[in-house]
Specification:
263 residues; alpha/beta; Rossmann fold; 2 domains; 41% helix
């Protein structure tokens, strides 16, 4: 069944804040310390909770998203930070010419948390992010590898079996869609999950895109148990064993989350 945070925006926001403070920010600061006045962009910011720990360290943050209700909630949840000139939220595509004109070379840090797996044409998108970075800027990516048990995001399904069965998102596209409909999912959910299937990204493909873009991996961390599962399922986060993390293809099936810093 769909988890409570899928329908509870305040809970989702609070989880974003806590996960960012406890896991995302410390990982980022290993290669990119957050300092007062640093310019930070979050692409796919949702309710804005990921940015709050960065604001509290003095960063000036911009969040962009294509979902109007979630941008509205970000304005509400971070109204004080906006009033203080520390946070701005935009309903905008980062490909828009006016966005590029305003923010080309503007950011020290760009954050994409559980976003890149939703983005089409990643071979174009990741290099485009470089145009928004200042010299020495870095980009954080956190995402679930496509082949992991719930890499298709089927946990958002409303029906019991559709939300709890692992790995069936790896079925051929027609069979996957038929299975979702057979288990009672509505067309909106089927369409959403099919879009994720079309934009699937593995560890190997992500790293290849980074190399092709002329960028370097500054650091990586693969997780056996995703830190966000602490809030969703009460599971203790666990890092992936280095040996398993080093085995191509296999690691995608047994790694529930990866963190990267590139620059």
């Amino acid at each position: 069944m769909a988890l409570k945070h899928h329908s509870d925006a305040r809970l989702r926001y609070d989880q974003q804040v806590d996960n960012s403070r406890e896991y995302v920010l410390p990982f980022i600061e290993k290669t990119k310390p957050v300092t007062p006045g640093m310019m930070v962009l979050e692409v796919g910011c949702g309710e804005g909770g990921v940015l709050l720990p960065f604001i509290r360290k003095g960063a000036v943050c911009v969040g962009v998203d294509l979902d109007p209700p979630r941008i509205d909630m970000a304005w509400d949840f971070l109204a004080q930070e906006n009033a203080a000139g520390k946070a701005t939220f935009l309903l905008q595509n980062i490909y828009d010419t006016d966005f590029i004109a305003k923010y080309r070379g503007a950011f020290d840090l760009i954050i994409l948390k559980d976003v890149i797996e939703h983005v089409p044409d990643q071979e174009k998108f990741i290099p485009h992010l470089k145009t928004l970075l200042r010299p020495g800027g870095q980009i954080f990516f956190g995402f679930p590898p496509w082949m992991m048990p719930f890499g298709g995001h089927q946990q958002v399904c409303k029906t019991k079996w559709a939300s709890k069965l692992p790995w069936y998102h790896l079925l051929p596209r027609p069979l996957y869609g038929a299975a979702l409909r057979k288990m009672g999912e509505n067309e909106n959910t089927v369409r959403e999950l099919m879009e994720i299937k079309d934009t699937q990204i593995t560890i190997e493909r992500f790293e290849a895109i980074v190399r092709q873009a002329g960028m370097q991996i500054k650091q990586r961390q693969h997780y056996l148990i995703n830190p966000i599962y602490r809030y969703k399922f009460g599971l203790k986060p666990r890092k992936q064993l280095p040996l398993l993390s080093s085995i191509p293809v296999l690691r995608n099936f047994i790694t529930t989350c990866v963190y990267y810093m590139i620059g």
